[in-house]
């Protein structure tokens, strides 16, 4: 099927198989490989993107069903965002595979709530798994960012 | 596989007549199952563009009509004083994770009928009715009769869950939902919903049960817990749920 995807403000015309996920279309057709394929069934959060500003699992959205919703991926930040810098400054990255998903989840959180407390941070990150189990530093990074704002 | 996105229900009913056609709502269960190779529908009928499936409307009799495409995130914000609506809002807040709540829908969850999901038990407890549409017209089925078993509902071929109706009720009737899961956001090992003294149990059997059905029912055993575990923790969960 011929579809149009708006990703990070740019319109792309592409052909996608009806069963193809947004994740596959981003990675394979648009070569936006910042969004990671982890479990591919909605559990791990590595493929988290924003759809019209709301968090979404790109592995659970079909590319053909995205329609006119705007997709935002980690590539939207051509320069490091505050969230990315906070993660780096706190050493909140180990293997880095889960990081794009955490960046998107924290980006959405800070847009909605500029001063989240620990509870709000933990709730916002509940759907993102870090197999290095580096959660403490990720939460600390978010707390530091909230404090500095 | 073929994909269509009709803009009204009549067109959706026609599209569903095809062999092995399936509705696509929020995709949070169906796309996961497709990715895992558990289902491969011949035609996907997206309900995303059908405006009449959206929105929550208070009815004149105090009941609520919830469009099937209402998301968990929308329902988590539901402001309505009836015990059934408060119970549903509570359950919507603990469905999965933020990214799933933003796009997953109540109609999709209800039609999927996972016994470990939050809505089946809560809708039975709430005395909700499920509105079902098809080319033949609309019918309403009480939630108690709608959920038949493991991924099994009263839905027939060509039918779509179009809305959920919550009955009116006094604002001072206490209600509570207790969910036991391994980690926050996971499916329930067991869940208990109570309105007043009426208790309904989810995750114990393939369909939600009333308290008096428990003694004559074999508890489920699955990857989440053994039957013995479920039997042993149920009384504690019921106690927590009924101590208002």
Please give a quick description of this structure:
The complex is a heterodimer of chains A (149) and B (244). With 149 residues, chain A is an alpha+beta fold.
> What would the average pLDDT of chain A be, to the nearest integer?
97
User: Roughly what fraction of the amino acids of chain B lie in strands?
Assistant: 25-35%
Shape of chain B: globular
Helical stretch tally of chain A: 5
> Which class best fits the helix and strand makeup of chain B?
alpha+beta
Q: Write down the secondary-structure element order of chain A.
A: EEHEEEHHHH
Task: List its salient traits.
heterodimer; A: alpha+beta; five-stranded mixed beta sheet; 5 strands; B: alpha+beta; five-stranded antiparallel beta sheet; four-stranded antiparallel beta sheet; globular
SSE order and pairing:
The complex is a heterodimer of chains A (149) and B (244).
Chain A: E1 2-7, E2 10-15, H1 22-29, E3 48-51, E4 54-57, E5 70-72, H2 82-89, H3 99-112, H4 118-124, H5 135-148
Parallel strand pairs in A: 1-5
Antiparallel strand pairs in A: 1-2, 3-4, 3-5
Chain B: E1 2-4, H1 9-15, E2 21-24, H2 30-35, E3 43-46, E4 56-58, E5 64-67, H3 72-76, H4 83-93, H5 98-103, H6 106-112, H7 118-126, E6 129-134, E7 137-142, H8 143-146, E8 147-149, E9 152-153, E10 160-166, E11 175-180, E12 190-195, E13 198-202, E14 209-210, H9 227-242
Parallel strand pairs in B: 1-3, 2-3
Antiparallel strand pairs in B: 4-5, 5-10, 6-7, 6-10, 8-9, 11-12, 12-13, 13-14
Helix pairs in contact in B: 4-7
Write up this protein.
The complex is a heterodimer of chains A (149) and B (244). By secondary structure, chain A is of the alpha+beta class. In chain A, 34% of the residues lie in helices and 15% in strands. Chain A has a five-stranded mixed sheet with strand order 2-1-5-3-4, covered by helices on one side. The model of chain A has no long low-confidence stretch (mean pLDDT 97). By secondary structure, chain B is an alpha+beta fold. Chain B contains nine helices and 14 strands. Chain B has helices spanning 9-15, 30-35, 72-76, 83-93, 98-103, 106-112, 118-126, 143-146, 227-242; strands at 2-4, 21-24, 43-46, 56-58, 64-67, 129-134, 137-142, 147-149, 152-153, 160-166, 175-180, 190-195, 198-202, 209-210. Chain B has a five-stranded antiparallel sheet. Chain B has a four-stranded antiparallel sheet with strand order 11-12-13-14, sandwiched between helices. In chain B, strands 1-3-2 form a three-stranded parallel sheet, with no helix packed on it. In chain B, α4 (83-93) packs antiparallel against α7. The longest helix of chain B is centred in the last third of the chain and has 16 residues, at 227-242. Chain B is globular, with a radius of gyration of 17 Å. The model of chain B has no long low-confidence stretch (mean pLDDT 96). At the A-B interface, β4 of A face α2 and α5 of B.
């Amino acid at each position: 099927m011929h579809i149009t995807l708006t990703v990070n403000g740019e319109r792309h015309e592409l052909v996608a198989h009806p069963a193809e996920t947004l994740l596959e279309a981003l990675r394979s057709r648009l070569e936006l490989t910042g969004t990671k394929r982890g479990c591919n069934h909605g559990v791990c959060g590595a493929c988290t993107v924003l759809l019209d500003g709301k968090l979404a699992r790109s592995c659970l959205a079909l590319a053909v069903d995205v329609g006119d919703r705007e997709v935002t991926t980690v590539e939207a930040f051509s320069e490091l965002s505050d969230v990315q810098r906070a993660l780096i400054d706190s050493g909140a990255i180990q293997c880095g595979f889960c990081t794009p998903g955490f960046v998107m989840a924290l980006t959405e959180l800070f847009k909605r709530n500029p001063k989240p407390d620990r509870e709000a941070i933990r709730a916002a990150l509940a759907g993102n798994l870090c197999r290095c189990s580096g959660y403490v530093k990720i939460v600390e990074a978010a707390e530091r960012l909230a404090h500095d704002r | 596989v073929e994909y269509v996105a009709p803009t009204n229900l009549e067109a959706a009913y026609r599209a569903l007549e095809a062999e092995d056609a399936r509705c696509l709502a929020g995709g949070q269960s169906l796309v996961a199952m497709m990715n895992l190779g558990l289902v491969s529908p011949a035609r996907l009928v997206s309900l995303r563009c059908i405006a009449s499936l959206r929105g929550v409307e208070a009815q004149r009799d105090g009941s609520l009509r919830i469009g099937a495409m209402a998301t968990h995130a929308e329902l988590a914000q539901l402001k309505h004083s009836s015990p059934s609506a408060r119970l549903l809002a509570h359950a919507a807040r603990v469905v999965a994770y933020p990214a799933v709540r933003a796009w997953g829908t109540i109609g999709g969850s209800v039609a999927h009928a996972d016994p470990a999901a939050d809505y089946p038990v809560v809708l039975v407890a709430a005395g909700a009715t499920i509105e079902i549409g098809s080319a033949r017209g609309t019918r309403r089925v009480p939630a108690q009769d709608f959920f038949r078993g493991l991924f099994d509902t009263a839905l027939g071929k060509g039918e779509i869950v179009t809305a959920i109706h919550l009955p009116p009720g006094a604002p001072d009737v206490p209600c509570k939902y207790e969910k036991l899961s391994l980690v926050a956001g996971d499916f329930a090992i067991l869940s208990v919903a109570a309105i007043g003294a009426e208790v309904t149990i989810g995750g114990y059997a393939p369909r939600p049960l009333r308290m008096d059905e428990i003694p004559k029912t074999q508890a489920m055993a699955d990857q989440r817990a053994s039957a013995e575990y479920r039997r042993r923790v149920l009384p504690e969960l019921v106690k927590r749920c009924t101590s208002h």
